[in-house]
Predict the 3D structure of the following.
Amino acid sequence: MAEASDLAGESLLELLAGFIVELRQAGLPVSLTENLDAMEAVQYIPLGDREAFKYALAATLVKNHSHWRAFETVFEVYFSLRGAEWSLDPDASDFVDPDEDQSQAPEGAGEGQQAQGGSGDSLTPEELAEMLYKSLMRGDQSMMRAMARQSVRRYAGMEPGRPVGGTYYLYRTMRNLNLEGMLERLMEQAQEDSPEPLTPLEERLERDEYENRIESFKKEIESEIRRRLVADRGVEAMAKTLRKPLPEDIDFMHASREEMVQLRKALQPLTRRLAIRLARKRKHGRKGALDFRNTVRHSLSYGGVPAEPKFKYPRPSKPEIFVIADISGSVAAFARFTLHLVYAISGQFSRVRSFVFIDGIDEVTRFFEGTDDILDAISRVNSEADVIWVDGHSDYGHAFEVFWERYGQDISSKTTVIILGDARNNYHASQNWVIKEIRNKARHVWWLNPEPKAYWDTGDSIVGEYATYCDGAFECRNLRQLERFVDNLV
Amino acid sequence: MTSQDPTNPSPFDAEPRFDSVEELRTALRNVDYLSDEGIAGIVYLADRLGKPILVEGPAGTGKTQLAKSVAEVLGARLIRLQCYEGLDESKALYEWNYKKQLLRIQATKSDTEGQNWDEIEDDIFSDEFLLERPLLEAIRAIDPVVLLIDEVDRVEVETEALLLEILSDYQVSIPELGTITARQIPMVFLTSNNTRELSEALKRRCLYLHVDYPDMEREKEIVLTKVPGLTESLADQIARVVRSIRQLELKKSPSVSETIDWARTLVLLGVEQIDAETATGTVNILLKYQSDIQKVVKEFAAEQKSFSRGGILSPEA
Ligand SMILES: Nc1ncnc2c1ncn2[C@@H]1O[C@H](COP(=O)(O)OP(=O)(O)O)[C@@H](O)[C@H]1O
Ligand SMILES: [Mg+2]
């Protein structure tokens, strides 16, 4: 096995073992084989090539692309301090000097810096801004990295032991840099350099280019902050604070903005996967009983030998789906994702109709029909649906009553009704007789609740009162649970 | 580790195929495949570790081409198993040539009366009657081969089991013949468009390579290599426009092959500068869905507002 290469007193094997523990803590499944593969793989990687080290570990340990971010975070934290030999940067050794830095980063730092250390320390803020501008202009990566380090050193105001998160430091650094102004300046320069005025398309392409550079500069800042935090707090503590749920486990109701972006990204491949899988299921699903007559008929072409048995394929008629979704505040995201999934596989159903409510209810089928842009339809639902009756606080009872009055007659034994919501009814009347009536006419009635089961029927949640009349009520907090439900729906 | 009998070297002692990642990258470039450090690095590792590579990613990003190009670099024969629903052992592994077997049984009956059945059975279940399918063919090959198991996500999960023995031990068991072990470890590529999760068992046996859309520089190089008559400046514009389109939230982003098609078209049309009119007039080559086309046309015509798409500049984004 691997020769014990000494790294800051740790053998490579111990280092990897620790890393794998962290990965498992972050929820990544790592098997024993994969563990061994990783240990073998790193033998073939030139020591010191951090990028190569990273993809060698990724290729052996992470077999699901949606886990990449989690892997990367653990990697960055775990290896951030482990010796300059792991970094390709010639100036890598200059960053871990927390003592020196923190002493010179007083509250509200930013106006004029002094002191020894990196060569950039003697620059005025104006000079620093000018250098940053130049490096963005040229797209000079190593220069941008140096600027990022300098900016964090100067503006983040990091102090040891201070219990604030990385976002706080990021915010402080960014505020002092005024990157928006920088972008405008870069764009003006681009206009000036062009012999003719830029067309909107050219302008767009220029802007995309600069935004990309700024984005990568921002990543450098983040990673610098992370390294300093690790230096201050230690690997374990940082790994823990940065531990994030995998996309499929992100809670719909408490997703941060960044997590929402991840969720949206994860949804695309998921719907595609689901659509293909369901289409196959339908086509090749359950072989039926032997179709004797058909077999004999075909046997004639084989001189009477029943060489090719024929089966009866049961073709259950496609159900019609009614989705009734609470789209008020905290459950809105859940409704959005579910509508998205259901419409993405709407080919599996004879028809999908959708209704959204808060205290009033509105049919929104019209937004989805006649377009293949589900995202656009959903944003129209958000802005155009008529769902407020009195005060815009959820009133399931009233919404259900109106639903029954207007659309009750459309429900038949072919209809599957899916109701989405946390059933937090603000102490209004439940009117659960509506669900009972629906159940009497429909093929199935399912309830999906984005709250953890433990919270059901606490406070103003009355999901139990409705669930008694449903065929089932399910906790549906994340994409994993949602996918499972939709998969079983067909 | 010393190798034993030179006539029957253990496959596990094979010489490495590539000296370095850099060398491999250059070799791939010479056969018109533009890799990056990750792609070349993982192929290099797969050879060193004697492991298959599972290549996953969106359609049209060069997964299949990677296997072909590696074969070309190695001067190896490419053996391809194209997966599809309903693929089974008889198409993937081997099949007995029963027509020939029947003929042999009949022939034997008429020549030598009373030959015993065991002998006949031994005879007809021998190599002569075996129809090799790609997996067996790759295992038994003596010349250098690269095995490509393409679009493995299209077979049912249960069918994956067929692959497991080969992928971990480079051998197959045939009840009538016993176990056949590879004489060499071939390079093995599996590709998946990720239409379903592959089984853990399969993934454990492979190195994992996620191939995404290339970055701008690499895409530019790809079109320059693939499209004759393309100028550097047009290639640059193409790569920029495609990158901008991929940043939009679309039903389906343009793939590399679509970028190549677009570049070919622009060359044919004699375009030198891509203006908005050209872009919107030809964007249907890059995009499949009408709603995506409309979105792009709208975006490209719009005057840029100061903080057009917002988001990236705000600190907490
Ligand atoms: N990195 C690359 N270098 C050269 N050509 C590429 C590259 N990536 C994709 N292509 C080209 O794009 C086309 C589609 O590639 P293909 O391998 O069929 O995609 P996939 O198997 O991922 O769906 C091919 O014509 C291939 O030559
Ligand atoms: Mg392919």
About this structure: Strands of chain A lie at 6-7, 10-11, 320-326, 351-357, 361-363, 415-420, 444-449, 472-475. The first strand of chain A starts at residue 6 and ends at 7.
